[in-house]
Amino acid sequence: MRSPSTAMRECLDASASTFCNCWRLARKDGTIEGFTDHDRDLSFGGVTYRAASGLTATQIEASVGLVVGSGEVVGALQSDGLCECDLAGGLYDGAGVEIWLVDWRDADNRLLLDATTIGEVTRSEFAFRAELRSLAHLFDETRGESFQRGCSADLGDARCKVDLGAASFHTTGVVLALAHLALAHGAIIAGLESEFADEFFTGGSLTFTSGANAGARVTVKSHRRSGENAGIALWSRLAGPVASGDTFAIVAGCDKSAASCERKFSNIVNFRGFPHIPGNDVVMSYPSSLAPSMDGGSFFE
Q1: Fewer CB atoms inside 10 Å of the end CB: C or N, the chain?
Q2: What is the pLDDT along the chain (301 residues), one digit of tens a residue?
Q3: CB atoms within 10 A of CB 94
C-alpha cells in the first residue's frame, strides 16, 4: 500500500496542483534514462529527468489480484535520449519503468506510483508508442518443461550446449545489393566469407557491424544461395537504410526439429523435445482393423 508523506498529502489536498510525472527507465544493458512531462529538467535519485523528451502517458489500469495491469506511454523521436534505431534494435524491449508523481517545486516530495515493464513498442514516422505492463505479467510466462515435438531450448543456450562460436555455425558478410522482390523486409544480396547450404541461416540472427544499422540485430526470414552470393530476407524492418558495402555477422538458425538437431548440429543427445509423442491425429483416431493396434506400446518399434 502506498503511504504518501505529510507534505505529499498537503500538496494533494491543495487547490492548485504542482505535480508532474517522471519516468525512470532501466534498460537491460544497464543504461538508465529519465523523462518527465514537466517543462524543465528535474533531478533526484542520481537521475536527471529530461523535459525535452515530449513523453506523455495514457491512463494506467490496475486491479487487485493477478490481472495484468496495462497502460501506454507515447513520445516523439526527437530527443537526444530516444533514438529510432535503438527502439528498432530492441534495446528497450523488457526495460523496467518506474512511474513517479513528483512535486516539481521540491523533487524530494515524490511518490512511486507503479513499477512496470515495457512490452510491445510500435513506431510511426515521427513518434513511438510503448505498452506498459504491470509486474503481474511475469506470472504468464511459461515455466518448466513442456511436452512438445519440437525442442524447447534456444540454439546455443545452456540447455542446447551447441557452441555457436565454432566456425561451422557462423560467418561474416557484406551487402552487395538490395533484393527488389522483398524490400519491405530488407532483403539483401550478400557476399558471405564462407559458403553454406540453402536455409542454413534461416531462423538465425544477423547483426550489422557497419553502416546506418551498426549494432542492430534482426532475425533471418530466409537464406538461399544465389550463384556465388546469398539472398537473405529479414523479418524486421530496419530503422536505417541498408547500403551496399555494409558488413554484418550472421549465425545459424534452428527449426527445433529432431532431424536438424541430429544432422545439422550433431547434437541429438541434448535435444529438448519429444519427437515420438503422439500427435492430434492419434488422439482423434478410433480403432480400425486397418490401423496398428492401440495396446499402449510404442509406434516406433
Answers
A1: N
A2: 467 778 777 777 777 788 888 888 888 888 898 888 888 899 998 999 888 655 565 555 544 444 444 555 555 544 555 666 677 667 777 888 888 889 888 888 888 888 888 877 776 666 667 777 777 766 766 677 778 888 988 999 999 999 998 989 999 999 998 875 444 456 889 999 988 989 999 999 999 999 888 888 889 999 988 778 898 998 887 777 888 999 999 999 999 999 999 999 999 999 999 888 777 776 676 666 666 666 666 666 6
A3: 12
Q: Which CATH number fits domain 15-138: 2.40.10, 2.60.40, 1.10.3720, 2.120.10?
A: 2.40.10
Report the distance separating Cα 252 and Cα 227, nearest Å. Answer: 20
The cell for 205 is: 540472427
The strand pair at 205-208 and 217-226 is best described as: antiparallel
Cα 71–chain centre separation: 19
pTM: 0.63
Domains 15-138 and 150-275 in one fold: yes
Q: Are residues 86 and 10 in contact, defined by beta-carbon separation less than 8 angstroms?
A: no
On the CB side of 249, how many CA atoms lie within 13 Å of its CA?
12
> Which of 90, 118, 95, 92 shows the shortest CA–CA distance to 239?
90
Q: Say if domain 150-275 classifies as CATH 1.10.510.
A: no
Residue of 243, 247, 249, 250 lying closest to 177 (CA atoms): 243
The domain ranges of the chain are: 15-138, 150-275
Conformation bin of residue 63: beta by default, left when phi > 0, alpha when psi is -120 to 50:
beta
Pairing outcome for strands 56-57 and 70-76? antiparallel
